[in-house]
Amino acid sequence: MSSKQSLSTGASEEPARSRLSVHNFTETICEQSIYFHVLCLKDSFLLWIGQQPANMSNLAVALSTKIDSIPSASLLMGEMTDPVSTTLAQKLAKLTGKQVFVSCDLPQDRMLLPLVETRIINELKAVPDKFYF
């Protein structure tokens, strides 16, 4: 039997192709280069935001539920005292209705963070297929 034949039916099957993809974009915000890396997943996405070199020191996840209008969120790794990743994951989950993972490696800056959030939302609206399928 060839490697492309199904064991159960003997029918020819093509290997599954991965639909995972990576989308990168950069923006200068408050005179700082901010890098964005999106791992596009089925019905979800992972977003890393930071400055070079890439460092995933925290990771939060959020997803919408039928129980509450505010998405459930949890910090998977990192410091509990830094709510940036969790808050952003919640906002993006609410906006998209998808499960969202966020790792944000930026300083807590009241001027910078709202501009970063706006840039992400603009990119998400411009090319939603780069975030999830």
Task: Explain this structure.
By secondary structure, the chain is an alpha+beta fold. The chain has a single domain, classed as Ribosomal Protein S5, domain 2, CATH 3.30.230. Helix content is 21%, strand content 33%. The protein has 2 helices and 6 strands. The chain has helices at residues 84-96, 112-126, and strands at residues 21-29, 32-41, 44-50, 59-63, 72-77, 99-105. Strands 1-2-3-6-4-5 form a 6-stranded mixed sheet. A hairpin with a 2-residue loop joins strand 2 and strand 3 (44-50). The longest helix has 15 residues, at 112-126. The radius of gyration is 18 Å and the shape is globular. The relative contact order is 0.21. Pfam families: PAC4. This is Proteasome assembly chaperone 4-like.
Brief sketch in words of this structure:
With 133 residues, the chain is α+β, with helices and mostly antiparallel strands. The chain has helices at residues 84-96, 112-126; strands spanning 21-29, 32-41, 44-50, 59-63, 72-77, 99-105. The chain has one domain (21-130): 2-Layer Sandwich (Ribosomal Protein S5, domain 2), CATH 3.30.230.
